[in-house]
């Protein structure tokens, strides 16, 4: 690693040392001896960082990458280059100041964790290693010199304009940022109040005072709600700043980030499709997000992102250009599926309404009448929600790729290559049997492992697999001889 990383490691260890150091100073009464012990602790941390840096090396040997650590016991990790699924390069703030980066290697064998991490290589070395590792993983050794001489071939598929960052507040996850920050501050106050100097009892007293003044508590909640689009939009912009999707030497490369610049590479040969996702607010604005469906990819929800919020037409154009288009209309599901969506969206609130009427009549409390009104309002809202859920259902096949779509508050359409389908599963609950529908799941050796067409008719459940993979079902559907 670069020796500059020695300026980062001690700082990175400080949070874990802060409380012990403060404890030493308090116990020692801030005497000269206590300061000496604290300085010894900081010095020990620096020495540990130097030893760890000096005893860690990496090397590409033939068709494998070896990382070696020999601080106390010798450890050698070997990663075959042909198993590498992706190489990510990120630059946290301190690394960017020093011209360093973090290179993570994913083989898909470790779930959501990377297989190896080189923390503290220079930006130039990270890009060189990334190019070498991905090229060697994708091509035989014999073709390396020619490929290296030709240099990387790069084509920008899309650069997301900065004005599209205004779509950020439409993404539900980012909207909750103010509440997450407030919750974290409250938790910090109750957990570390004494150590931070204002006392846990003081934090508890503030909470009790706010609870005793509900109007002030309501004001705080309203302020957090008002802050949602601004703080959420800011966080979204920080994570997705200058988003670029490129095609480079057989890999899809997604680059993004303002403070922590990150580059994620996905081998095109292992991409089996894509998933288009939108929520209610995003749908009204006509924007969607996109993820790649890739075999052997760890942490696919983060590493597989192809696009942040972009206009729907742009998303389908980009995914079609980068992976392949889907060229067929989605087939509707039977009307009984609509009835099931409406029943599930309305019936629970009607039950609450009936229970509220009974309790209001028995107790005479106004609270139950308020609950009745709320339940009826939610039941009314459930009607368009159920209809939208039904309208979102669909499945189809264009001869090359199949697609399934479902959901309303979070609608998802998965487009998967036919060659990626490894099996079919039919699932039918007791209620589905009564309604004559079932859930058809296409087993895929990539992404989530399976994608569901919900509440299809029994005829569709039998006919769709026969259409997509006829050779699998032909022996079972052929008429008996004679």
Radius of gyration: 28 Å
Order of strands across the biggest sheet?
Answer: 6-5-4-10-9-8-7
Helix content: 40-55%
Query: Judging from the principal axes of the Cα atoms, what is the shape?
Result: globular
Distance between the termini: 75 Å
Poorly predicted segments: 140-150
Give the integer mean of the pLDDT values. 81
Helix count, per DSSP?
17
Query: Strand tally, please?
Result: 19
Structural class: alpha+beta
Oligomer: single chain
Characterize the biggest β-sheet.
7 strands, antiparallel
Number of domains: 5
Approximate strand percentage: 25-35%
Transmembrane segments: 12-31, 37-61, 172-192, 212-239, 342-361, 367-387
Domain YdbS-like PH: 53-130, 401-460
Keywords: Membrane, Transmembrane, Transmembrane helix
InterPro entries: UCP026631, YdbS-like_PH
Could you name the key traits of this structure?
6-stranded antiparallel β-sheet; alpha+beta; 17 helices; 5 domains; 482 residues; 7-stranded antiparallel β-sheet
